[in-house]
Amino acid sequence: MHEEKLPNPWKxxxxxxxxxxxxxxxxxxxxxxxxxxxxxxxxxxADPMCPLCGAxxxxxxxxxxxxxxxxxxxxxxxxxxxxxxx
Length: 86
Description:
Radius of gyration: 24 Å
Strand order of the largest sheet: 1-2-3
Oligomer: single chain
Shape: elongated
Helix content: 10-25%
């Protein structure tokens, strides 16, 4: 059976690691992505539940952080009635 050869994307690319990849590409080939079978598109749940307290996520308050502050998830009723940091 004839296997179709893929063109080597590293040919002509300058640099040491490009040369290493050019040699290894015929053996390793391109990255294999996916799970190996057709997959249905992701459909988010209509009413997601909190993994920490089990309440609806719509009842939570999320304080989004930035590069220097963390994001905080405030559960309406936690296991100990406390606030959790996400």
